[in-house]
Structures are given as structure tokens and as C-alpha cells.
Amino acid sequence: MGEDSQLSEFFEWLYLDGIPILDYKDLVESSNKLNDYVGPIHSMPLWHSASIASSRRTMKYVSLDQIKPSDTHPIQLIHLTLVTPIQKHHEVNTSNLQDIVNAVKDRPDIKIVFTNMWDIWGSTYITEEGEIDVVKWICDILEPMQENVFWMLANQHIVNLVNQYLPNTNAVYNTVYYRNTVIINEKYKPSTEYRPYHFLCLNNRIKAHRNEIYDLLDNDKCIKTYMEKGQTLEVQGSEYEYYYYFTFNEQCAIGISTETNFRKKQSEETDNKNFPEKGYIDGLNKGFFTEKTIKSFWSKQIPFIVGTCNIHKIAMDAGFRFHSDLIDFSFDYIEDDDKRMDAIKTELKRLEDIDIEVINKYYNSDKCQEILDHNHELCKKYSKFNFNTYILGIHNGTR
């Protein structure tokens, strides 16, 4: 019997009838994909509209006025999933979230659980009237019962804000990308052999910042792909390309991850489709990194993230370390997106001009290997994190 099966005797999951899922209405119907899912919530599949998973759970469908103490389970959990675009929480569900808090705030046996396993959500949205700090809005509502609210979120920046606004709550950083990268490749042993290329740069969807990096890199000094432009690796195609192709990681010393977002404003990254209603005109991105970066950590590449301002700092908040004795990361603190891109390109060209023998000598140095080992082991730690056990430990006072 698995750990989560054993935990089922402690948890009763409450599904609240009549409370809309905090998501776009046109995505809600796809939540039935979860009907056949069996597994813990920390390894929920990659679906935007995942509202609640059936991880061998004892579930009860109730309305707010029907909630009462359980005769069989010491803990009752209300699980809500935070997904893009977060402004829908503010626009549609303000009273619903407040109603939930009012109903359970004096019930320490009931916990509210927020998860955001995959997608980015910004902390700030811009309307015609000004900026809205959506994280603070949620935290202000939850403040009366913050000790009984649990968060597992895929953006360390948002975790930092939650802990700032609610110092007595329980917010942790994690994402399914760790489990997908590590568990799928559990037997993988990174090689420390000679690496003939400076860079690996894998790109999927077309974005302006990826275009600039892809065009910059010397074909003779890197392995690079751009799937939406038809530039792929000469291997059999797979929807899990970013998870499996570690042969190419081992040929390259430095892993360049061109992350999902580079610019501060979401409207400059997309066609503005996330902001069509009720005065929402833009949103601010910060700090989110995906499997592109996690693969560099896991495969023991020297990581170089092309992302939003301070993304390396935010990854350091999550425990990762970087090779500042090889790479000048001063670009990370430049807020102006165009100036940051210019600084990134300058640094990449400087690294590209270093002889590959010198790069390999540094790569195999004790100092470099110690950082690579640290990041590799941290990925493994994140991949094994069990949110269910974490909740139970906090409740029992053992964490």
C-alpha cells in the first residue's frame, strides 16, 4: 500500500457544490479528464483546468452550509487550483472565496489547499483604474485562517509574496516539472566526460526573445532546436522531447534555457488574449521557470536562464546555485527588457569566444562539480516532495 493510500484515513476532501472552479468557464469542462487519474496531488497531470484530483481520496460533495465535522477523518481539505489567468479570481470569485473563509475559519480541522502545479500566474494585473496586487487580495481574504491554509505553487516569487503577506501560513514551492524530469529519467547518470559544444539551446514555441538567442548562437559551437520553425533534433519525435533527450545535454557544457517569459508585461509576450474583458489590459510576469531550466540542473549542465528580471535570484531563493565565477550574471538585475537582452547577448558572445578546452577544464574543476552536484540533488529532493505528508505534519505539529 502506497504512502498516499495510507494517508487517505486522515484526509476527507470536500468538493463544494455550487462554488465555481476558479478558471475560465470554457476550460472547466475539460476537468473531467481527472476522473481516471489516480495519484497524489503533488504529481497532478499537466492540465490548466485541473480543479481536483481523485488521488485515492475519500470525497464528500457538500454545500457550505452543510459542512460539519467528519466522524471518520481528523482532517477535511478544500482543494482549489490556481491557474492562468489569475485575474479571474478577482473578477468572478471574490465573494465565493470570502464565503468559504467565513464558513470554515473557526474550524481548525478544515484546511484550504491551493495548488498551482504547472502554469505561471502573475502577482500584479493592470486595469484601466490601475494595478491590482492579486496575491495580496487573496491573502487579505485568507488572513483570519492563515495557519490552516496550505499552498504548493510553481513560482518561487509568488511563494515569497504569500509568506510576506501571511507570515503564519504554509506556502512551499514545487512543480510537476521536477517529477516529470527526474522520475522519467530516474536511472539517468550525468556524464562528466569531455563536452565538445559550448551551449545547448532547445526552443519550442516562437517568441521574440528566443528568436534573438537562436539567431545569435554560432552553429559550430552549440546544439540548438526551434520546433515551431521546424528545426528539430535528428531523433525520433516525442511530445516529451524536453524530458528525454539527455544525450544532447551531455555534449554541451552550458544549458541555455529560453524561458516561457522574458518581458515584464504579458501583453508583449502574447496576443493579449488573456485580457479581453472588464478593463484587464495587462499583467506582470516575474520569476517563473520550467523544465527548460530544470533539465539543465538535472543533467549537470552549467545553467544560463534567459528570462524575466531577477530570475536567477528567484531560482536561488528556491535553493539553486549558479556559476558566477564563469558567468557574469549582472544582466539578471536589469529591469529594462531590451537592455537586459543586450547584456545577455554580450555575455553569451563572450562565453562563446572562450576556447572549449578552457570551458571543459572549468567544468571538471572541483568547484564547478560541487555546484552541479548540489543542483542535481536539489532536483531529486523536489521530485520526492509529498504535499500530503507535509499537510499532515503541520497539522500534527511534527514539522
The CATH class designation of the largest domain is: Alpha Beta
The percent range for strand residues is 15-25%
The total of helices stands at 16
Give the proportion of residues in helices.
Answer: 25-40%
Distance linking N and C termini: 24 Å
Please tell me about this protein's structure.
The protein contains 16 helices and 13 strands. The chain starts with a helix and ends with a helix. The protein has two domains: 3-174, no CATH class; 180-382, Rossmann fold (3-Layer(aba) Sandwich), CATH 3.40.50. The protein is globular, with a radius of gyration of 22 Å. Helix 5 (134-142) crosses helix 6 and helix 7 packs across helix 11 (291-298). Helices cover 35% and strands 18% of the residues. 40% of the residues are buried. A six-stranded parallel sheet has the order 2-1-3-4-7-8, sandwiched between helices. Strands 10-9-11-13 form a four-stranded parallel sheet, with helices on both faces. A three-stranded antiparallel sheet has the order 6-5-12. The protein is of the alpha/beta class and 399 residues long. The chain has helices at residues 3-7, 25-28, 87-92, 94-104, 134-142, 156-165, 176-184, 208-216, 241-244, 246-249, 291-298, 311-317, 337-352, 356-363, 366-383, 387-396; strands at 11-16, 58-62, 75-81, 110-116, 124-127, 130-133, 149-153, 170-173, 197-203, 222-226, 252-258, 280-284, 302-306.
What's this, in brief?
The protein is built from 16 helices and 13 strands.
Can you give keywords for this protein?
399 residues; 16 helices; alpha/beta; 2 domains; four-stranded parallel β-sheet; Rossmann fold
